[in-house]
Amino acid sequence: MASEPGPAPEVHGPRPGRARDRRGRGPRGVMSLPGPLSPRGAPAHRNPREAFDDLVAEVLTRLDHHFAREPDHVEVVVEEAPLLPPGWDEPVPRSIVNTAPGGFRIVIYRLPVVGRSRTAADLEEMVWTVLLTRLGEVWHHDPEDLDPRL
């Protein structure tokens, strides 16, 4: 007597929808930890400061050829937020340019830039815009002339 096949087993996977993000700290758990398929771990284990620093470094790497051609030395620094005087009623600046020994220093403020971005694509575009605008000021070029993406 042949047995009849039973119902096909159900395949269960992750729940549909977004992954859980408790208290706004980003993904946690086995998906972000190192494992056999991602020995160094997924990028989710980076903290927001490291991710922002990596984004700024990536943009600066794409702009390396301009740094080699321009005579003025430019240092780019990332800080959390500017120290504003009491009674400040203007929008918080995203960046500033200071003179430094032998050139200029561009300071990008992470929290104002991140706070004005809704998505990762917005954040990347804003970092590009801030850096190109400030470098254009220092080197007296139109920011569009410096942009390698065009």
Plain-language structure description:
Helix content is 34%, strand content 13%. It has a domain at 47-82 and 91-146: Zincin-like (2-Layer Sandwich), CATH 3.30.2010. The chain contains five helices and three strands, in the order ααβββααα. It is elongated, with a radius of gyration of 23 Å. Helix 1 (48-62) packs across helix 4. The model has no long low-confidence stretch (mean pLDDT 79). Strands 1-3-2 form a three-stranded mixed sheet. It is of the alpha+beta class.
In brief:
This protein has helices at residues 48-62, 64-69, 110-115, 120-139, 143-146; strands at 73-79, 95-100, 103-109.
Furnish the topology, listing elements before pairings.
Layout: H1 48-62, H2 64-69, E1 73-79, E2 95-100, E3 103-109, H3 110-115, H4 120-139, H5 143-146
Parallel strand pairs: 1-3
Antiparallel strand pairs: 2-3
CATH class of the domain at 47-82 and 91-146: Alpha Beta
Mean pLDDT across all residues, rounded?
Answer: 79
Based on Cα principal axes, name the global outline.
Answer: elongated
* N-to-C order of helices and strands: HHEEEHHH
CATH architecture of the domain at 47-82 and 91-146: 2-Layer Sandwich
Unreliable stretches: none
Question: What is the count of helical runs?
Answer: 5
Q: How far apart, in Å, are the first and last alpha carbons?
A: 73 Å
Number of strands: 3
Strand content: 5-15%
Helix content: 25-40%
- Topology-level CATH name of the domain at 47-82 and 91-146: Zincin-like
Q: Radius of gyration from the CA trace? A: 23 Å
Q: Going across the major beta sheet, what is the strand order? A: 1-3-2
Largest sheet: 3 strands, mixed
Structural class: alpha+beta
Biased composition (Basic residues): 15-26
Region (Disordered): 1-50
Protein name: Metallopeptidase family protein
InterPro entries: Zincin_1, Zincin_1_sf
